[in-house]
Amino acid sequence: MTINYKSAEWHGKKVILGEGELNPDTPINLLVGFHGAESTPENMLVHGNRLQLANTFMVFPEGPVDAGKGCWSWWSDGPRQSETINCFLDFSSNVINFAQDYLETRFSNANLHICLWGFSQGGAASLTYTLFGPHPLHRVASVCGFLPELPDLEAAQKPPVSILGIFGTNDDVVPSFLAEHALGEMKNKGHEPTLRETSQGHELNSDNLKELRSFFEL
To answer: Whole-number mean pLDDT of the chain?
Structure first.
């Protein structure tokens, strides 16, 4: 499967778009990939390219928080975390709006399934947006993700979301109990998580990608 990539600037930030052949007669997956903390969208693109998903428009945004040395994060740790998570929610909503507009100018009647996935802080970003972001979501995946200290916000009123949470017992960055706790919180909020505990460390590996491919193809 051939996927063409190009860079754009949306809302003053870099975003990488990945597109193969799209058929508007069936639902198109709009798949947003969140990179980890102090990272880049290119790092997430490498993994996304290996998913090889049909009828999927991939979006790899650059995080809004400058982590230095050309790297980016989704929010800041420390006392400003709650404030910057609010900024993350606004930023990500704008990214999804831009992606919807981009596709709807070409496929006016297309049925778009908005999906999120991410690794590490990107997994946390996917889960956090599921809780508080305004857009209805189709499927969400988190690899080695967690939940940050959440802002004092009401959870968004939207249908339950199917969530795949992959985490490792040998992860020395995000311990498995934190990942498992985060997915338990998603269930408590009415969502539908599937937990996949593996022996992996803090990584996104080929077995994960196979499971993600099956998950997003449904």
So the answer is: 95
